[in-house]
Amino acid sequence: MTNNGDVASFGPNAPGYVWKSTADVEPIEVSPGITVHPLWQGANGAKAVVTTIAAGAVWDGEDLHDPGPEEVYVVSGVFNDGVNDYAAGTFLHAPAGSWHIPQSTQGCVLFVFYPEG
């Protein structure tokens, strides 16, 4: 697609198009054995992160989804929300106001998106 022949207006060169590798971001330990690689944050506070949970790690307390929902895709391993196990390839939508206790017995990598911050 072009805009009056201006290919740079669309696709990977469009204004606002962003890419980042987890290798380019220092991990932030948010709980013992749980690290976050921030990848993107929008003007409205929306953000995308990759979260790694080491084998045996458990979030300290309840992870409350506020102000908005949390959407999780299990990239590898098995994620546990404190009740259920979710294998790689699973998508979870946790509505605003819900909570869970992130953990993993064998370790996992998650892609997490917060559409409202």
From TrEMBL:
One Pfam entry for this protein is: Cupin_7
Domain ChrR-like cupin positions: 21-113
SUPFAM superfamilies assigned to the protein according to its UniProt record, in alphabetical order: RmlC-like cupins (SSF51182)
- The name this protein carries in UniProt is Putative anti-ECFsigma factor, ChrR
